Amino acid sequence: MTATPSLYGPQQSRFARYLERREQRRPDPVHREFRREALAGLRGHVIEVGSGDGRSFEHYSPEVEHVLAVEPDPTARAAAAARAETAEVPIEIVDGVAEALPAADGAFDAAVVMGVLCSVPDPSAALDELRRVLAPGGEFHFWEHVRSENPAFQLVQRAFDALFWTRALGGCETTRDTESAIKAAGFQIERLDRRFHPSSLLTITAAPNIIGTARA
Question: Please, what sign has the CA dihedral across residues 91, 120, 110, 196?
């Protein structure tokens, strides 16, 4: 199975590299707060899928006993390892993809995805895998940018995806209806908030996003 192209690997576009360098120089405080909010309330054994460079690790509370961070890109894993050293909880970083998680059935109390379901080749398969590795009644926390509810803005998203965005950002599609996909996978959504936040005019089509929790 082939992993989704990463923002960190040698195949990333100049635009993706620019966005990553800009985030390193001037981290977006709103996105940092969204990450903190998405991870609030977690406890026990947690799997974070598509953990990237570990930017979320600072937000895990002491109630979390262990985090398995799954990330396909070796450059991102190396950056995440440095962040894991200063985290308040034990974090194990492993190679893997969302559609074939390196974990046993029912092994986790909670699962986390942030900016993943927009990019994986098969979001339905990824969600099925998340349900598989969650214990019955386990929590699913997500923060994802999604298709706008505004039809006119949807047209802008589709056009920008087709012309530029999806190729430039490792397969990311801003027009996915992730809320419906989560429900179709059998999760019961308990909380869902819709936000609109572009980090710049260059990322305006990725501004619609959802933060929420669901239960397996």
Answer: positive
